[in-house]
Amino acid sequence: MDRYDTVYRGGTGEYIEKRSRFIGQVYPVSSEEEVFAYLEEIKKKYWDARHHCWAYVIGRNPASERMSDDGEPAGTAGKPILEVIRGKGITNVLVVVTRYFGGTLLGTGGLVRSYTAASAEALSHSVIITRIFGFRVDIHTDYAGLGRIQYLIAQRGLYVQDTVYTDRVVISVLVPEEEERAFSKEVQEGTNGQAVMEKKGDCWFAQTENGIQIWNE
Hints:
The protein is α+β, with helices and mostly antiparallel strands. It has helices at about 30-45, 80-90, 105-125, 145-155, 175-190, and strands spanning about 5-10, 10-15, 20-30, 50-60, 65-70, 90, 95-100, 125-140, 160-165, 170-175, 195-210, 210-215. Strand 9 and strand 10 form a beta hairpin.
């Protein structure tokens, strides 16, 4: 199935351990250039912080991954952040955790726990969506077949973009790629071959907090 989870809107979260303050921030990214632009912004915003540790995952099959401990002991910051991202199963995301030192050394275990917690907290305040690859499809039908087609659309939970009523009906719907063949068969059988399905192009789409979002890529 050609779909993946990603960040639609990034969030922030904070974790405090023995007066050390860990500020987690999440950003949707699609390139390393975006990653380093965000890092520059964070370093300017939190100019007096001791560390800005981060990890990102971009792309799929295979994904590009990179991380930084930014001066913390090796493996205590960047790797825990990356493991949180992997655990969520998301891509095209950057997580940065900024640390203000509280005066007490935390040790390896304390650092791993803190960077993990701050990353998880920031992701919990982010909006995660599932982007799906599919097709824009126009279904042309007479009024006799309309009810059956509407039922099939509802059964699959497909998103209707528009419906035009004239002497016939044209329903514009988004269909995931893996469902397109089976759905087409159902429509043909359900209307005794009277309905016509016309592909209008492919796209990525997702249900977001603002409704269905479509990307032409």
